[in-house]
Amino acid sequence: MAFHSVLFARTEDSITEDLEAPDFFVDLNLDQIIDAITARKQEYNLKPFFYAPLHDIDAIKYRHEIMQDLESGVLLENVKSFARKLHTMREALTQADKLHVQYQKKSWFLRAVDIYCSAVRSLTHDLSLANLRSRGLSGFYEYLTNYVKSDYFAALFAETEKLKADLSTVKYCLHIKGNRVTVRKYEGESDYSAQVEKTFEKFKQGAAKDYRVEFATWPDMNHVEANILDLVAQLYADIFHNLDDYCAKNADYLDETIAVFDREIQFYVAYLEHIAALKRAGLKFCYPEISNPSKDVYDCEGFDLALAYKLVTENLPVVRNDFYLKGDERVFVVSGPNQGGKTTFARTFGQLHYLASIGCPVPGKEARLYLCDRIFTHFEKGENIKNLRGKLQDDLARIRSILNQATPDSILIMNEVFTSTTLQDGVFLSKKVMERVIQLDLLCVWVTFIDELAAMSSKTVSVVSTIVPGKPALRTYKIVRRPADGLTYAISIAEKYRLTYDCLKERISS
Amino acid sequence: MKALLMYRDRDFDLQGELPPNLEALTQDLELNTLFNAMAREDKFLFEVARRAVLSSLDDLDTIRYRQDILRDCIKNPAVVRRIYSVAQEAIESEKKVYWGFLSRYPATILSRSIEVLQMFVGKLKALRKIADEYADAFESEGFSTFFGMLKEELSDGYFADIQDHLRELKFPSGVLVSAELGEGFKGAQYTLHKPQENKESWIKRITAKREPLHTFAIADRDESGARALSELKDRGINLVASVLAQSTDHILSFFTMLGTELAFYIGCLNLYEQLDQLGEPVSFPRPVTSSERRHSFVGLYDVCLALTMKAQVVGNDLSADNKDLVIITGANQGGKSTFLRSIGLAQLMMQCGMFVPAESFCANTCRGLFTHYRREEDTAMNSGKLDEELSRMSDIADSIKTNAMVLFNESFAATNEREGSEIASQIVSALVETGIKVFFVTHLYEFARGFYDKGMENAIFLRAERQTDGSRTFRVSEGKPLQTSYGEDLYKRIFGTDY
To answer: N or C terminus: fewer CB in 10 A for chain A?
Structure first.
């Protein structure tokens, strides 16, 4: 099978370049995550890749394989080095475009081709040493090997080397007297500065200040330099003629498949680079088991990737949470003190599923996640608070629209809905919506202050945010499975005396 | 080229690290009096004297190396002062050569360097002349090497070479530069060559082969062309300008080092002349290694006291070889502090290669001299004062090592005698047992007596002398500790005997 792409297993899959971020990106802070991931990769326009979730398990595995190949050994560094070279190559071509002196343009073109040859050869060599297990990289390696062996590339490489060697022999003398410049070949004259240095050597006392002046270096030439280059080209006419021919012949040297690879592989590089800093801070990532149709899901030591990135940058600790749903459990009802990490928990659940759907490793030590068809979010929109009636109406309209589109394969994240009405109304509406959610068999995280929701069905699981015992102002951001019975405070006091179930058990057993 | 007048094999470091306790030393031994005498109001001499005296040597070889040079200086003061002034003139003149606003241009750097070098050549010639005329009058290894180096390195031929370069670097026949193709075919690796070197072949090429001459000229009104051309020239001479500027720096630092190292000896000469005027004797000490225990001298006086009083002062004799501990007790104002200071000063002077204020003096060097003096009461609270004393002792303990020497003056007396004695005993025992030499002036009878009763072979007890009529000689001599420090005498002198 001919190699197609490192992003898609099947030839018919591809993405459209003008993809926009999905609706729920902002609610889940996925926009921040993708912005951070792609921030230093603008030239590759990677965002569309991150906006397109995959819908079959094999497509996800295809990416996992490649990601795992890159993560093992030095391959990631090899690919980064390849990318840096191609970047430098593009800069050289841009530079060639900007210049006006013909031989300067050609010099930069030669440089670009030289970098290209070197990049392609090194990458081929690196891939030959790597123990490739992925279908994607194996296929690309096969393509690359054939390309490097081709007559076209061999000739391109040989001509480039020859020209470089010839040009490095060019050495000329300038004699400047008054306003006249004479140019001739260099004839072995000795370095006069060295002679002067030798004369004064006996006074040398250790390290000395460097008085050499730094000259501004512009890539282009003034007319004096251009005149000189012209004369040098006349002195070395053969070499410069060869250069003319070379440039004319090789204008379209860049291979399309290699150029596409250079961009697509950055999807993986960008993600791995982004999570590398978090891994150094001790956070774990794993390749989730993708599950469908079973809706058993779990994650150990998961965290909000956007928040973690911010905290790690500021050298702050990151709280990790475990969760699982098994059997007929479908809905997390998250309650507990404010700012205890409830929204973060909800976002984490959504992020994990989304990141899994684009074939990336996810936060956590071990995970099993559901392959959903769509993710829906409903987060309170602050700007509408002024208009209470409007807001409630708007909330209900949005929820209705979500419930209409949702299928049993969808995931729903709800954050503090119906806060703008009376408690009684809120309870009533929430229950109604919950019934629908249960009926649809949706996987759902629902952050709410309405305790009653937690115990509505065997499908709902109550989790609560916790606070630091004795110091409610400090947050643990830990979310634990516990009935929402308003006992948070009593539990806190028990924790203070290390008399909670877990603590006590630990103390007794040790 | 190096002066090497302070060390046989290296420069004197004016930036080097000084002992951490330099403030205490300076204050306790009144070192500024010594430095002032050496400096004669010259700030530079003061700084050099301070550096040299405070950075004690403990290798005997270098001490003797300096002693020999100093003997030569005392024999030939005028010649030494003349060398010193040549070095000072060179340094001063360099400062006067204007850098200008255009020091960003190699051409400017080059022309300034040429000017400075012309001046330096003059000064180097002057040094060479002194060497030719007076070298024979010097005997020390240091000066012989120095004069020998001047004669060998600064030959007439060498001066002629320098002149050639200075002429050439004004480029009377244009600038010849080679280059290679750099990035974007811009010139790279610009290297300067001597134009006339290939004159023949140059002319031959033009006439014989009749190749078209690859040449062009900048039009007279082409200002940007002229700028480009002068930048090109600047690139060509960039390295040589830097090399030449560095050479001026190197020669300047030769003169600076010569001036700095001689400044120490000039300071010694200044001191020598003042003591000579007072009729006070000086002698070159005999140092022995720091692991030995020697302290024997005749007529050791406190040089700072003599300089302050501008008169001869009482000297002391001591024979304390093989002693680790010297405890001095006795009369108030009996000369104990003066004695202790004279010990410290002689030690520092010996260990920088100077003469000492004594008729004869022999002592082991020490690896670090420390002073622990009772400070003037600056706080009323006694407990605070003992804290402060112990904290200073702790600082000393941080940096002290075997074969160092500590001078205690009335230390640990800020509490009652029993406690003070206990603290002092514990500290002193510990120091002595770790191979540190201790001089301790004290009123703490229990402390002094305690050590006396131990009958230690390696301890000696001195007492400030007192005539039977109660008057003081300001002499210190061997004697066991006595219970009273003659405070009664002092009381009587001040209040009279009638009370």
So the answer is: C
Q: Which residue has the tokens 């030439």?
A: A221
Check: CB of residue A174 under 8 Å from CB of residue A181. Answer: yes
- Pick the residue of A211, A217, A218, A231 with the most B CBs within 10 A to test the interface with B by mutation: A211
Q: How far is A87 from chain B (nearest CA, A)?
A: 17
Class of residue A210 by CB neighbours under 10 A (exposed 0-12, middle 13-18, buried 19+): exposed
Distance from CA of A44 to the nearest CA of B (A): 26
Report d(CA B78, CA B63) in Å as an integer.
24
pLDDT, tens digit, 9 for 90 and up, residues B24-42: 999 999 999 999 999 999 9
Question: What's the pLDDT tens digit per position in A178-195?
Answer: 889 999 999 888 999 999
If residue B473 lies in a helix (H) or strand (E), which one and from where to where?
Answer: strand B472-478
Token reading at B16: 């080097």
Nearest to A224 among B184, B193, B228 (CB): B228
Query: Is A211 in contact with B109 (CB distance < 8 Å)?
Result: yes
State how far the Cα of A210 lies from the Cα of B335, in Å rounded to an integer.
58
* Residues of A (95-154) whose Cβ lies below 8 Å from B: 95, 99, 103-104, 107-108, 111
Name residues 160-189 of chain A within 8 A of B (Cβ): 167-168, 170-184, 186-187, 189
- Residue A466, helix vs strand vs coil: strand
**Exposed/middle/buried for residue B190 (C-beta within 10 Å: 0-12, 13-18, 19+):** buried
DSSP-H helix ranges across B182-222 = 199-204
List residues bridging with B298 in a β-sheet.
Answer: B360
**Rounded CA separation A339/A479 (Å):** 11
Structure tokens at B241: 């300008």
- Can you say how many angstroms the Cα of residue A135 is from the centroid of all Cα atoms in its chain? 21
Chain A residues with beta carbon closer than 8 angstroms to that of B161: 199
Q: What is the pLDDT of residue A336?
A: 73
Catalogue the E-assigned strands of A403-442.
Answer: 411-415
Quick one: tokens of B133? 């005329």
Domain map (residue ranges) of chain A: 54-186+220-280, 284-509
The pairing of beta strand B360-364 with beta strand B437-441: unpaired
Report, at the CATH architecture level, how domain A284-509 is classified: 3-Layer(aba) Sandwich (3.40)
Residue A20: predicted pLDDT:
87
A460-468 and A331-335 beta bridge pairing: parallel
Residue B301 to residue B278: CA distance in whole angstroms? 13
The pLDDT value recorded for residue B101 is 57
Q: Which residues of chain A make contact with B254, given a CB cutoff of 8 A?
A: 203, 205
- Contact between B115 and B248 under an 8 Å Cβ cutoff? The reply is no
Beta bridge partners of A325: A297
How far is residue A186 from each of residues A172, A317, A330, B170, measured CA to CA in Å? 5, 65, 83, 23
Out of A172, A177, A227, whose CB is closest to B178? Answer: A172
Give all strands (DSSP E) within A316-386, no chain letters: 321-325, 331-335, 362-363, 366-370, 375-379
pLDDT, position A86: 97
User: What is the DSSP annotation of B250-276?
Assistant: HHHHHHHHHHHHHHHHHHHHHHHHHHH
Mutation site, A93, A169, A186, A213, interface B, largest B CB count within 10 A: A213
Q: Are B242 and A215 in contact (CB under 8 A)?
A: no
Summarize pLDDT for A258-300 with one digit per residue, the tens. Answer: 999 999 999 999 999 999 999 999 999 999 999 988 999 999 9
| Contact across the interface for B184 and A219, Cβ inside 8 Å | yes
Residue of B nearest to A230 (CA): B214
Across B251-255, average pLDDT: 93
| First-to-last C-alpha distance (Å) of chain A | 60
Beta bridge partners of A300: A366
Work out the percent of chain B whose per-residue pLDDT is above 90. 65
